[in-house]
Design goal:
CATH topology: Alpha-Beta Plaits
Structural class: alpha+beta
Shape: globular
Number of helices: 3
Order of helices and strands: EHEEHEH
Mean pLDDT: 95
CATH class: Alpha Beta
Number of strands: 4
GO cellular component, one term: cytosol
Family: Belongs to the UPF0045 family.
Distance between the termini: 27 Å
Pfam families: Thiamine_BP
Number of domains: 1
Protein name: Thiamine-binding protein domain-containing protein
Length: 98
């Protein structure tokens, strides 16, 4: 594993319930990839290989649009270490969970 991303998908729709419905579709797609992921209140973190994560970012945009929003904005953070050895989700957050 040589990368992790944090992605926040913001569908441009009218209601909060529509935002949640579309974001749920995006998260379901992330889950289906089999990659390790963590859903936070503002963004979802995913671990994997750089190329597959870049493809996932693209797919998340299309999933949101196919789920019914006319446009989508996304904020993405990328941690990339070509030789591998990035900090895992567990290393970053497990000590903070109650």
């Amino acid at each position: 594993m040589n990368a992790s991303i944090a992605i926040q998908v913001l569908p441009k729709v009218e209601t909060d319930s529509e935002v949640c419905r579309i974001v749920d579709q995006v998260i379901a797609h992330i889950e289906q990839t089999g990659l390790s992921y963590y859903v936070g209140s503002f963004e979802t973190t995913v671990e994997g290989e750089f190329e597959e994560l870049m493809e996932l970012i693209k797919e998340c945009q299309y999933i949101a649009v196919k789920s019914g929003c006319p446009s989508v904005m996304s904020y993405v953070k990328i941690s990339f270490k070509p030789e591998g050895g990035i900090l895992t989700i567990d290393q970053k957050v497990s000590k903070h969970h109650r």
